[in-house]
Amino acid sequence: MLAYLSRRLLLIIPTLFGIMLVNFALTQFVPGGPIEQIIAKIQGEGDALRNLSGGGGDAGQSAQSTEYAGARGIPPELLDQLEVQMGFSKLVCTPSHQGEPSLKSPDCHKEKISAFHRFFIMLGNYLRFDFGTSFFRSISVTDLVIEKMPVSISLGLWSTLLAYVISIPLGIRKAVKAGTAFDTWTSGAIIIAYAIPAFLFGVVLMVLFAGGSYWKIFPLRGLTSDNFSDLSTLGKIGDYLWHITLPVIATTISSFATLTLLTKNSFLDEINKQYVMTARAKGLTERRVLYGHVFRNAMLIVIAGFPALFLGVFFGASILIETIFSLDGLGRLGFEAAVQRDYPVIFGTLYVFGLLGLIVGILSDLMYVLVDPRIDFEKRAG
């Protein structure tokens, strides 16, 4: 098992490299780079995409101000300074230059950095977990990620745990009662729950329970109250759970439906196998057969779905849920960075999510072994 884990850990490096390379290459063709966004804000346009002419304005733009669509009236010196600050160019000074490098000095000039060079500079920094500084927030990406992480972890962790707590017992019950009235009406409820988008269900919850048109039981926004620091330990726990209830329920609605059907089908498949009939023939109770023999084998496929479920909740669903409930998490941060073309934040959050996904996948394999020690990944790899 140790050799298998070592190989999986080593595979993280080329996998992350591939993820970052593909996404970095894609950004070179996306119109409206960060400098275009700044130009649009300076000119009061609000969005660089309105100023594009012919699809220019990517991250690897030239130093010439004429290549920036809509840059008329912007001093060329300002554009040069922006390129240097954002890492698209660097200052090169003659050996005789004294003092700090400056664009105003006749001994210094701007030299464009190629996309290829910038990519490997970025990778070198990321290996040290140095994600740079946000273009638009004047704060390091590491500090931003640490600041937003608790919100996303809260949504992802609690929603995943709630989905498993509901889905596994319900799925087992549906498998045991397959074809009965209980199985029929719960299947209908699950289909309806699966068909409702998480963000729409979140809006319904807000209208019903957050002071919309009916009851004001839960808060409308935020993860904690304004007086959170003044509360006691129990008060802080209660306040946190009070705020997180509606977002977690909204996020769980579709994930628990999928997991319930997966659990049911997995148990039905195991119940019909020969070893179950043998166990029953030996006189074992139905409960002993179900939880002593079937459970361990049936849960393997359920455990296999944990990484996808967790990451789907952690990132995919959290973007809309965080926006609806005014929660400032990683999903919302990544979305806003993509709109603003804040490349350090985009690649920093992408790196974090990619690394988390790969680590969670390894943890899933370890859970396989814990559930069924008969599994030997080293023999399978051989």
Automatic annotation (TrEMBL):
Primary localisation category: membrane
Localization in the cell: Cell inner membrane; Cell membrane
Domain ABC transmembrane type-1 stretches: 149-368
UniProt entry tagged with the keyword Nucleus: no
Gene3D superfamilies documented for this protein: MetI-like
Recorded topology in the membrane: Multi-pass membrane protein
GO biological-process terms attached to the record: microcin transport; transmembrane transport
Membership in a protein family: Belongs to the binding-protein-dependent transport system permease family.
Protein's name according to its UniProt entry: Peptide/nickel transport system, permease protein
Species of origin: Paracoccus aminophilus JCM 7686
